[in-house]
Amino acid sequence: MRATYACSRGLVGESKVDYFLEHRRVRGGMLFVTSRPERLRFDVVSPFGVTLSTLTSDAKDFALLDVTRKEFVVGPATECNVARFLRVPVPPFALVSLLAGEAPVLVHQPSAARLSWDSGAYLIQVDSRYGANEWIRLEPTPADWDKPWGEQRVRVTEVGVVQQGIELYRAELSDFAQTGIAPPRHDPDGIDPDVPPSGPECRAEVPRHVHIVSDASAQDVLIIHKDAAHNPPLTEGLFRQLPPSGVRIRAVTCR
């Protein structure tokens, strides 16, 4: 799995997002940029191209701008703060991996991982040293079914994490398609030099559908990639934001 996605340093693209917010279903467009291991930026836009909200997380600080409420929420980059945006408690590092098609793996001792073959897929089960359990389903790509297992590229089709009998989240990945790297970023004014892609040439598959369900929060979110590319150009301050004038600033802390 890691060899399949070794060339990818992050992802950039446009998606449709579908989730519940305050007992109503919300559907909209989303621009996103991720950078491994856990930096991310989401911009939700209206059908008219107006930014409605922006989430940034740079592995240390989290910020969420809600334009409609004129509110700017800041706090640590934790899974419960990210859940204020996507409604499911997924840590930033896990979300960055899942959007690109790779499963995050809980910290564990080598003896606490088991591998078996289950209904056409490799099933990995992991017992974390912190009391959580994880399962990962890996399917060989159609072109690699007849190759030795050590040479097979794989698709992550399902990931789940359970702690103390409660399913924190389950992610289902599907509709895989190969994609390349993002082009360099050009300064429209021609003043600053071009910003190159953040990684090497990459043709790894990306899941077009990422469905994350959480029993813990009784919520789910569906992300459908319309367009995606590996190794986006990264500019200064991309994963941080300052509050604009006229908004209420609210600091939050959660674990």
Summary, kept brief:
The protein is mostly beta strands and 255 residues long.
Notable traits:
single chain; 255 residues; mainly beta; 14-stranded mixed β-sheet; 2 helices; 48% strand; globular
**H/I helix tally:** 2
Radius of gyration (Å)? 19 Å
What is the number of independent domains?
A: 1
The name of the CATH topology is outer membrane lipoprotein receptor (LolB), chain A
Provide the succession of SSEs.
EEEEEEHHEEEEEEEE
- Rough shape? globular
Q: Report the CATH architecture.
A: Clam
Give the end-to-end Cα distance, rounded to a whole number of Å. 30 Å
Beta percentage is over 45%
Per DSSP E runs of 2 or more residues, the count of β-strands stands at 14
The residue fraction in helices comes out at under 10%
For the largest beta-sheet, the strand count, sense and barrel status come to:
14 strands, mixed
Kindly report the spatial arrangement of strands forming the biggest sheet.
7-8-9-10-11-12-13-1-2-3-4-5-6-14
State the fourth-level CATH superfamily: Lipoprotein localisation LolA/LolB/LppX
